[in-house]
Amino acid sequence: MKVHIIGLGLIGGSFALGLKKAFPGVAVTGSDASEAHLLKAQELKLIDGPATLEKAREAEVLIIAVPVDAARKVALEVLDAVGPNTLIFDAGSTKAGLCEAIAAHPNRRNFLAAHPIAGTEFSGPEAAIENLFQAKTNIICEVEKTAFKLQERALEIFQKLGMRIRYMDPASHDRHIAYVSHLSHISSFMLGKTVLQKEQNEKDIFDLAGSGFASTVRLAKSSPAMWTPIFQQNKNNILETLEEYINNLSEFRDLLKNDNFQEVFREMEKTNHIKTILN
Ligand code: NAD
Fold it and tell me: Is 84:58 a contact under the CB 8 Å cutoff?
């Protein structure tokens, strides 16, 4: 099997490593807008070598793993270039805009819109992890718009990488992901900002930070270049959930102000329900 990956960061690099393990003998080429990332990906042996789109169109599988603002343009360029037997899939964290952008393309049936729910706060080729996708969910949108034979090829790849599949329409995907991923990132970024502001003259106070702070602020280390276009593309869903989050914070502040600790206890006790969902 020949695979070409566009965007050799955390996600593209992890696909490269995972596919090499799952499909011995696979040939993986890659390309990246950053010359430094392309060189690093070769040095780390994520890819066997670089390839232009002209050459890459011969691959059986083309993976798009670039930030979501670049993904629409790249997807259209790749759709223009491929023949009928090439599977193209993406990994972008927003789906409605991309699916709309490619909807009328004559080669739409080559494309499978996917979002692996797997990642870390790190980016670039050095962040690639061989088993990143193992036991993770991959959300597939508008599967009926992908040619059946190419759906089958994609499912074989995802299953070999150890992924579970969920099917969703793009609008539901973007709404749910705003709750469980995008809001968490905003919350972590703003928590990090608040603590940096409060502690700006006492840097060594961070020595006192425990694992609770480390885990809640972990996502604030994420790449602004990746997250700004995600927030832009999913703005309306994020604004809706952010409104509710801000209300909850305000209510909690008022409970404290009013010494209503019985209600503070009850709020936390109710939210402990999360233990039964996530362990
Ligand atoms: P990353 O920053 O690690 O890698 C992105 C790579 O794409 C970089 O090497 C960058 O140079 C390259 N690139 C940017 N524009 C390009 C273009 N026009 N053409 C070619 N290469 C280009 O980011 P990542 O974490 O690997 O994210 C890639 C995609 O996967 C994004 O769409 C993101 O939404 C999605 N995703 C990320 C995570 C996560 O946790 N990081 C999880 C699931 C999905």
Answer: no
Q: What are phi and psi of 80, to 5 degrees?
A: -65, -30
Q: Distance (Å, rounded) from C-alpha 27 to C-alpha 169?
A: 32
Complex ipTM more than 0.85, yes or no: yes
Q: What is the pLDDT of residues 84-141, one digit of tens each?
A: 999 999 999 999 999 999 999 999 999 999 999 999 999 999 999 999 999 999 999 9
- Amino acid (1-letter code) at residue 84: P
Output the pLDDT for position 204: 65
Give the separation between CA 211 and CA 224, rounded to whole angstroms. Answer: 24
Pocket of ligand 1 (CB under 6 A): 6-12, 32-34, 37, 65-68, 70-71, 74, 91-93, 115-116, 118-119, 123-124, 127, 223, 226, 230
- Atom 42 (ligand 1) nearest CA: 119
What is the 229 CA–ligand 1 centroid distance (Å)?
A: 11
117: left (phi > 0), else alpha (psi -120 to 50), else beta?
A: beta
Q: Which domains does the chain have, with CATH numbers?
A: 2-168 (3.40.50.720), 173-277 (1.10.3660.10)
